[in-house]
Design brief:
Elements: E1 4-5, H1 6-17, E2 29-32, E3 37-38, E4 40-46, H2 49-57, E5 62-67, H3 80-91, E6 95-98, H4 101-105, H5 111-119, E7 122-126, E8 137-145, H6 147-158, E9 163-165, E10 171-177, H7 185-190, E11 195-198, H8 203-212, E12 215-218, H9 221-224, H10 227-240, E13 243-246
Parallel strand pairs: 4-5, 4-13, 5-6, 10-11, 11-12
Antiparallel strand pairs: 1-3, 2-6, 7-8, 8-10, 9-12
Helix pairs in contact: 2-3, 5-10
Length: about 250
Amino acid sequence: MASLNNKKLENILTEFMQPHRVRDFTVNGMQVQGKDTVTKVITGVTASQALIDAAVAQQADAILVHHGYFWKNESPAITGIKYNRIKTLIKNDINLYAYHLPLDIHPELGNNVELAKLLGITVRRGLEPWDKASVALVGKFEEEISTTELTQRIENQLKRTPLVVDAGKPIKSVAWCTGGGQSYIELAIEQGIDAFISGEASEQTIHLAREAGMSFFAAGHHATERYGVKALGQWLAKEKGLDVTFIDIDNPV
């Protein structure tokens, strides 16, 4: 297996993910520094204590996640749960890398592109036509699909039963945003799109979908965002020869 300097690995990831393309709410790149040489990498959705403990058990040199630490407006104090997580990383000399919105929007292996592959959606454009780095996307099914059929496809691919609003009409065009992207439904409604898929639903999302006559699917924040970081890890293994393992710490949300 190949090895890389930890700072070199950050440079490779940052060059590939291009975080400068989007304004984010967190730090993208290396968040906690560990050992200089990285050979074994664990990937996962969130840098939870369970994922860190699994990385320690596998003697990993680095963890690569979608949801890391140091979010905008959170307390800067390193206490409690945050202290325990960071203490475990430092004690075991493990590097932590995190890419949030850059991983959502990446055109080759981002969360939204990977979800489209799983559900058989052809990507057409960004939902935000004025933004080249649109987080939400618009696409189509090659053949019309019913709400029931799409619900079954989501269940089969994501192993999660979605929350569904059924507009009772065929679906051809679809917009989507993984994770907590439910607020983008209003743009989809304005553009006359048949259906919207997200990870979560807010109370008002259901009313908007019903009143617009749009089918809506909330398929789980975690469930819709497993696939970008997994694909990024596979890219690292293939292109750089690192030993990379994806660990799914399941989350019902």
